[in-house]
Each structure stands twice: as structure tokens, then as C-alpha cells.
């Protein structure tokens, strides 16, 4: 396990303010892997932990991941995906995120799981960080592209890092369409999540992501609607926030109520103003 710091990046990016919170807070409402994105609830009665594991298998399936493949996870969070792909699929993985706290956590988990030899991370912004040489067999972005202003640059860079035939997986929350963005982008709930929680974020309609992928030269392979899965995921997170509110507030006073408001705002719009999609593309030439 190695961690490289991108010295060109600002020490603490605006988009980091949420992810730089004390990592113990995330351990108090996420699943044990600390996966901070939608689960996959396609069998009745799944727990949050089971749904997150099912989601990781879903991603591997969409990527056609095989043992020894090289995978780059952009916005790797607490390493749920890279650690899982290294452990379960024997993939050689690189994670990148600007949030300093996440890298030490991932290094510790990689050592505990015995996969440190095939897991590395880069601290920085995907847009301009120095990355290990390609080509990669797969590039993934789960819940991170919303924090990147220049879609065209991001998708061109993702494509340039892939081998021919390599796959690019993005799952992201989207406005239901351009009209919903025009109507709701500046509403108070959206501004609260954008500024008070994350510092910066730009949710788009799926059509913007598809257009940017096409313009970057990708072939679009599949689109899955994961809206109900994310609603269930957030419901499960809210149950955990409520159950652990005192412990969360002991670490950061008032944080349980802030988190609850964020999660409630996020869950209020599904199907009406917002959707959650998994988009899979291929570098076919
Ligand atoms: C919602 S979290 C998702 C984490 C992880 N993908 C998961 O599913 O658990 C978004 C992640 O994107 C990272 N991020 C934000 N801006 C980024 C950028 N410009 N380049 C790379 N990662 C970024 C954050 O630090 C955070 O780790």
C-alpha cells in the first residue's frame, strides 16, 4: 500500500469539508465498509451492509472485472470499492481523493485485509493529480463526479487512462431533467446541501453526463436506474444517525441534526426532482 500526495492540489479543497470530518462520524451511520454511496437492494430484506456488498458485485459485473485487472477509483472515499475489488476480485487498484483523512484509514484497512500489495492511493484532485501510468482496465466514479465542475475534462481524462475495450462506471445523483434543474437548482434545500454540507457540488441531469461521455469518445453501454436503491440506502443511514445521535454529537456537537437534515433533503426529491443512475461506458476505439 502506498499513498502519494498531489502537491499541486490546495491543502484542503472546498469539496472536502464534508469528507474531512472526523472519520468516526462516518463509522456511526454508514455500513461497516464505510461505503458512502447507494447500495443495491434487489432482494427482499437486505440489510444496509448486504446491499452495499451487492452493489460492489454489481459494479464488478458491469465492468466485467477479472483477476489482475487494474482499476482506478476516482473519489475513493474510505476505500470500500478498492479494498473489495482487491480482496474479492484480485484486482490491482488505485484510489484517488483529496480528503486527507481517508488515505491513512485505507492504508490501515489494506494492511488488516492483507491486500496492501495491490492497493495504493493518491491524495489529490482527479482533474490535475499525477497518477500512475495507464492503461487501466476500469475507471470508476461513485458519487464523486458531482464535485467536479468540468465534466468534459474529467471524462476525457478517464478515457485517456483506459485501454481500448476498458470500461468506465459512473453512478451519480441527477436532476430528473433539465427543467427540474432550472427550477430547483437554487432552492434552499439544494443550496443547503451544496454549501453547508459539501462546499461545492453540481448535480446535473443524466443527459449532461451522457453528452459529455459521447463527446469524450466513449460508447455508452448501459444505464441503470438506482433511484429506489438510494432512497432505501438513505433511509437506512437515517436510522443509524438517529440510533447514534448522542455519539455523533459528542464528536461534533450538532452534527447529528445537520446530517439528518441533509439526508432528509436528499431523500425528499427522488423520482420528482432527482434520480440516481449508473452509467457504464466503454473505450471502444
Ligand atoms: C460521496 S463520496 C463517495 C465515496 C466512494 N466513492 C464511495 O462510494 O464510498 C465522494 C468522494 O469524492 C471525493 N472527491 C471530491 N472531489 C474530488 C475530486 N476532484 N477528485 C477526486 N475525488 C474527489 C471525496 O473526497 C469523496 O471521497
UniProtKB/TrEMBL annotation:
SUPFAM superfamilies: S-adenosyl-L-methionine-dependent methyltransferases. It holds the Pfam family CMAS. The keyword S-adenosyl-L-methionine applies. GO terms for biological process: lipid metabolic process; methylation. Keywords: Lipid metabolism, Methyltransferase, S-adenosyl-L-methionine, Transferase. It comes from the Bacteria. InterPro entries: CFA/CMAS (IPR050723), SAM-dependent_MTases_sf (IPR029063). The keyword Methyltransferase applies. CDD domains: AdoMet_MTases. GO terms for molecular function: methyltransferase activity. PANTHER family: CYCLOPROPANE-FATTY-ACYL-PHOSPHOLIPID SYNTHASE (PTHR43667:SF1). Belongs to the CFA/CMAS family. This is Class I SAM-dependent methyltransferase. It comes from Frankia nepalensis. The lineage of its organism: Bacteria, Bacillati, Actinomycetota, Actinomycetes, Frankiales.
Amino acid at each position: 500500500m502506498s499513498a502519494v500526495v498531489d502537491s499541486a492540489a490546495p491543502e484542503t479543497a472546498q469539496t472536502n469539508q464534508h469528507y474531512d470530518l472526523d472519520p468516526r462520524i462516518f463509522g456511526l451511520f454508514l455500513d461497516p465498509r464505510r461505503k458512502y454511496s447507494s447500495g443495491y437492494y434487489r432482494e427482499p430484506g437486505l440489510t444496509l451492509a448486504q446491499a452495499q456488498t451487492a452493489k460492489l458485485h454489481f459494479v464488478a459485473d458491469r465492468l466485467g472485472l477479472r483477476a489482475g485487472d487494474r482499476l482506478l477509483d476516482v473519489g475513493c472515499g474510505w476505500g470500500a470499492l478498492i479494498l473489495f475489488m482487491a480482496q474479492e476480485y484480485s484486482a490491482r487498484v488505485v484510489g484517488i481523493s483529496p480528503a486527507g483523512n481517508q488515505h491513512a484509514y485505507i492504508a490501515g484497512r489494506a494492511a488488516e485485509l492483507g491486500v496492501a500489495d495491490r492497493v495504493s492511493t493518491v491524495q489529490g484532485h482527479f482533474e490535475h493529480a499525477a497518477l500512475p501510468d495507464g492503461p487501466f482496465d476500469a475507471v470508476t466514479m461513485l458519487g464523486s463526479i458531482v464535485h467536479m465542475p468540468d465534466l468534459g475534462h474529467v471524462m476525457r481524462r478517464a478515457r485517456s487512462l483506459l485501454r481500448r475495450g476498458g470500461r468506465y462506471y459512473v453512478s451519480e445523483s441527477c436532476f430528473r431533467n433539465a427543467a427540474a434543474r432550472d427550477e430547483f437548482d437554487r432552492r434552499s434545500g439544494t443550496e443547503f446541501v451544496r454549501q453547508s454540507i459539501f462546499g461545492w457540488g453540481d448535480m446535473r441531469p443524466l443527459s449532461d453526463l451522457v453528452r459529455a461521455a459521447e463527446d469524450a469518445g466513449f460508447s455508452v453501454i448501459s444505464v441503470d436506474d438506482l433511484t429506489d436503491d438510494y432512497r432505501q440506502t438513505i433511509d437506512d443511514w437515517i436510522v443509524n444517525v438517529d440510533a447514534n445521535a448522542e455519539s455523533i454529537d459528542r464528536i461534533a456537537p450538532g452534527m447529528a441534526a445537520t446530517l439528518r437534515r441533509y439526508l432528509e433533503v436528499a431523500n425528499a426529491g427522488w423520482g420528482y426532482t432527482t434520480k440516481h443512475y449508473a452509467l457504464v461506458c466503454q473505450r471502444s476505439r
